[in-house]
Automatic annotation (TrEMBL):
Keyword DNA-binding on entry: yes
The UniProt record lists the keyword Amino-acid biosynthesis: no
Biological source species: Ktedonobacter robiniae
SUPFAM superfamilies per UniProt: Ribonuclease H-like
Matching InterPro entries: DDE_dom (IPR032874), Integrase_cat-core (IPR001584), IS_Transposase (IPR052183), RNaseH-like_sf (IPR012337), Transpos_IS6 (IPR047930)
This protein's name: IS6 family transposase
Phylogenetic lineage: Bacteria, Bacillati, Chloroflexota, Ktedonobacteria, Ktedonobacterales
Amino acid sequence: MDHTTMYRWVQRSAPELERRCRPHLKSTVDSWRVDETYIKVKKEWMYLYRAVDSQGYTLDFFFSPTRNAEAATCFFRKTFAASHTTEPRVINVDKNAAYPKAFAELKAEGHIPEHCELRQVKYLNNRIEQGHRFIKRLTKPGMGFFSFETARKTLQGYEIMNMLRKGQGQGIERGDVGGLVALVAKLFGIAA
């Protein structure tokens, strides 16, 4: 099979797989870890914002060409809108100055509950820093992407498959390949 065939499949199927899997994800816990990592697109660094809960389950992700308060705000809005996320008690972030600005703006608008706390402690984010490794392991051999859209769709596929592999799908445990195949077959209406 040619690599361009695989490329076309990923570009067409990854967004659809994410859309169909989202309603079948398990609920997360109320302690969030938020961070961003760098991904190369056309020899320029872009930013993949990611959030996990204290158990390591992925809350959401957001790919952005910028690393500023506006991008952080968009990411937080997307994460709060996800159906499987639980209202946070605490959000742990690193020392990036964009997070307090975005947090204050969303709290003032009423999107973040009053009791929620933002903690800027570098070492509390070790779990998400370790989570970035799976993305780096997949993107480094490819030496970057050639367009923002290609990167966004491919990363969508990587993230949703990793979420399912970690056991975030309802009725699927970590490492249950048979359950994962059955869920995807059910979602797409094909025989497993």
